[in-house]
Amino acid sequence: MPRPKNPDATSVSSVVLIQKHFLFNISTHPCLTSLSLLCIILDSGICKVTYEPDNFRNNLLYLPVGAILSIVWLGIGFEIIEPLIRINPLILAALGAPLIYNGSVSITEQFIFPNNKIVYGPCPACENETRVYFGGILGVEGFDDVASVKCKKCKAVINVQKKSLRASTLPKDE
Description:
By secondary structure, the chain is α+β, with helices and mostly antiparallel strands. It contains 3 helices and 10 strands. The chain has helices spanning 55-60, 63-80, 89-112; strands at 14-19, 22-27, 40-41, 47-50, 52-53, 117-122, 129-134, 146-150, 157-161, 166-169. A hairpin with a 5-residue loop joins strand 3 and strand 4 (47-50). It is elongated and about 75 Å long.
């Protein structure tokens, strides 16, 4: 379906957009400066988008504990095993990889970052990329089910749900 030349025109009351095998009714709204953002607008004027999990940043949370456990494993391995048998450090690291992995995951998820989840997506009002962290950090409680964050660009309040990754914002009062 061709895009309208001016999506902000007042003569356009609604546009039907078929994307990702779904049919959405998109009304004219300030968040529709471009139709690259898939924005579902209900009759109430609430703009919603779906965020995605940020697996790269979520996996980086395990890096500090993994590095510490790797150094401890190699240090203990050289102190205990080296006097008996000479083993290449790469083989020693490969033998300890499952223990290091499981240890870093369990320590990180239980003590340092419990219930961690990092998501990202566009701001429903201005399309600026926003990241949200769900969970706690070292015993300090963070967002649990719904996160309310402000967009750095347009200062709109964005509510993000942890389970559905649905982000919504109320329209600005005119």
